[in-house]
């Protein structure tokens, strides 16, 4: 039998699935707008060179790439940040900073699928470009948490784990590690909790990290509080100053109840430079719900002017799973405000005019496409979760009076055509 399923790892959105996606998108858009972010978009296809230049090693291997008819190397974007960087660089001289930009875009990664991870997903991004203060990190995380609260989640379901790449650099400064060695350390630490300590040790040794560095790394990732980390650092620690400032701002933003210092959080992408964060489910074994951090060097590495940047990425697949686990998915039935049916062809024009009037008032209204019997119509109205049902027969056509049935309360209201919404 022929297989009509979508390609492996991709998704179809039937109406009931689309309603859940719309619910999540609405929460994302709501949070972005009330925090003053502006939306942007870009092609889903980018140059392979752009995506390779600053993607983490793991993601470079996961890019869907191809050649067009002119032999140009192109790819489906694996994330939104490279496109954002390209657009900023393209107009860097004419933009007024800081910028607060948001996007919801489709992304593709050829990777092993697990629960909460597919090869195609929609990603919500929030970025602040051109602000050095950790108010940028606080603003991005607060807006993200607002979107989660909009879906009914709270600190009972989500914790935001806060780390710092800069802090790890300072803690390992005695070893004079190269940039490549530091990156190898980050990538290994990013696997903390995903693989065993023995496996992390093996990864580090394979990257030629000295034994004394490996031993220090394992001592470092056992640090459980910011106060404990402070005892390892000099008084003039820039990373410690940033973290303390950030946690202070989080108090005034009212989000400190969500936050947890976690020195092992480094993020897998190579372009992060300062504070990094991951939102994790409290009681679920799901992968990271959202993540991000400061990436001050990305624009300059791609040929632009250096600007401080903070960003966050948040996929729709994992939040759908979390909402399901927490029994907070929206109702599967959409619900339309008005539905209109009619008995015969003579009543069709009146029904259509009534629907047009209701729609012009901004109310949603579905009108029948052919005559139907009253019993069939009201069954359909109930099946479609209609709030109000109007059935037009010869009596309504003659009198001009319309009976509006409230489907929730089983109450009837009689109105003239002119009195319709």
Q: Order of strands across the biggest sheet?
A: 1-5-6-11-10-9-7-8
Q: What is the percentage of strand-forming residues?
A: 15-25%
Low-confidence runs (pLDDT<50, min 5 residues)?
Answer: none
For the termini, the CA-CA separation is 51 Å
Tell me the overall shape.
elongated
Q: Count helical runs.
A: 16
Overall pLDDT score: 91
The CATH topology of the largest domain corresponds to: BirA Bifunctional Protein, domain 2
Please identify the oligomeric state.
single chain
Q: Approximately how much helix is present in the residues? A: 25-40%
Q: Provide the CATH superfamily of the largest domain.
A: Bira Bifunctional Protein, Domain 2
Please give the CATH architecture of the largest domain: 2-Layer Sandwich
Specify the biggest β-sheet: 8 strands, mixed
The CATH class of the largest domain: Alpha Beta
Radius of gyration: 27 Å
Structure summary, number of beta strands: 16
What would you call the structural class? alpha+beta
Number of domains: 2
Summarize the structure.
This protein is of the alpha+beta class. Helices cover 38% and strands 20% of the residues.
Q: What do these coordinates show?
A:
By secondary structure, this protein is of the alpha+beta class. The protein has 2 domains: 15-325, BirA Bifunctional Protein, domain 2 (2-Layer Sandwich); 338-419, 3-Layer(aba) Sandwich (Rossmann fold). The chain has 16 helices and 16 strands. The radius of gyration is 27 Å and the shape is elongated. The mean pLDDT is 91.
